[in-house]
Amino acid sequence: MGRPPCCDKEGVKKGPWTPEEDLALVSYVQEHGPGNWRAVPANTGLMRCSKSCRLRWTNYLRPGIRRGGFSDQEDRLIVHLQALLGNRWAAIASYLPERTDNDVKNYWNTHLKKKLLVEQQQQQQQQLLNQPRAASTPSLPPPPPKGQWELKLQTDIGLARRALRDALRVDAAAVGLLGTITTTSPALSSGDPGAAQAYALTARSVSSMLEAGWAGPAGKQSCAVVGGVVVPAPATPGAAESASGSSSELTECSGSISSPSKRAAALAPCQPFAREAEKAAAGVVVPLSEIESWLLEDGCGEQKPAHDGLLLDAARHNFGF
DNA sequence: AACTCCATCAACCGCTGGTAT
DNA sequence: AATACCAGCGGTTGATGGAGT
User: Fold this and answer.
1) Is the pLDDT of residue A31 over 80?
2) Which stretches of A100-194 are DSSP H helices?
3) Which residue in A36, A123, A160, A282 is a FRET match for A267, CA 20 to 30 A apart?
4) What is the third-level CATH fold of A10-61?
């Protein structure tokens, strides 16, 4: 017996959200915390389906989201993670705490994919110029023999890991994962002149309101906004401030859109990540030292197949076997 | 000025996995 | 064990605005 689609009901509004709708949603979430989305339309009077409410919150209204203005470091991180994980945008976005999966996905499709294509073409042209005699041979290397598959995979993963490490290292402050997370609101990056700005300002005020006063209900959704990022509410006053002051701590909200349990499962084969994911699932603010040490630890990935599960998983996804 | 084309991104849709009953 | 429900994910679409002609 199939399930009826949630958005087929009559009277359900679709299309862009109005400031009034945003405000109603934000007010509700502020009071009850994110979750139980099914109850949101009924309790707010919004003529939207629960799914639409959740998406609007997670992709736009949620505090701590930075929109647009991807830095070079973020570009590199996304490119490397995409090579490593494939189109698992939620997983990739989980490494960029200020970005949503939708944002990363859109940015990949509209910018990075083309950028990579251009770079590849330039590289191929350069190769042709450097090796005029080899022009008659195919430009792409032949696929490795089946027997060498695992060897190639491990080499590729080693390269990907090294590249990821480089991307993370360059300017930690520019990437929320390692650095201080800057305060921004969803609308701050809009910067578009004209009429669109009116709504952007409204959205910003909504966000500012959240940043000023956000706090989930005690015992249910204990989050707080620190420096524009949702973090677990501190056990004692001032704890959030100390957390925000630490440059090497990952801010994580146990009840936000990120799915710690899924992340834990996805990263389970990779022990250092799995430990972090378990802690995150428990709502603990996770220091990045273990992830960093894994990234910075030379030879770990190549010599001991401790992460084979993750590697094979990525390979299966990318190469469809 | 009017029109077309293209890029961007918010939002929708369909599907999957997890969980409660 | 079977079913129904819910949240989340990834692919796709459609509205919008800017650039080019």
Assistant:
1) yes
2) 101-107, 113-130, 149-170
3) A36
4) Arc Repressor Mutant, subunit A (1.10.10)
| Alpha carbon distance A25, A22 (integer Å) | 5
Instruction: Find out whether A293 and A272 touch, Cβ atoms under 8 Å.
Output: yes
Q: What is the pLDDT of residue A81?
A: 85
What distance in Å separates the CA atoms of residue A19 and residue A17, rounded to the nearest whole number?
7
Decide: A30 and A214 in contact? Cβ < 8 Å.
yes
Which pair of structure tokens corresponds to residue A15?
């299309």
Bridge partners for A225 per DSSP: A230
- Which nucleotide does the CA of A60 lie closest to, via C1'? B10
Strand B bases near protein CB (under 7 Å) are 7-14, 18-19
Distance A196 CA to B8 C1' (A): 14
- The string of pLDDT tens digits covering residues A199-219 is 433 444 454 444 444 433 333
User: Whole-number Å distance, CA A116 to C1' C1?
Assistant: 49
Positions of chain C reached by protein Cβ under 7 A: 3-12, 15-18
Pairwise CA distance, residues A61 & A187, whole Å: 9
Distance, angstroms, CA A15 to C1' B12?
8
* Per-residue model confidence as pLDDT tens digits over A177-192: 333 333 333 333 333 3
Residue A143: the pLDDT is 39
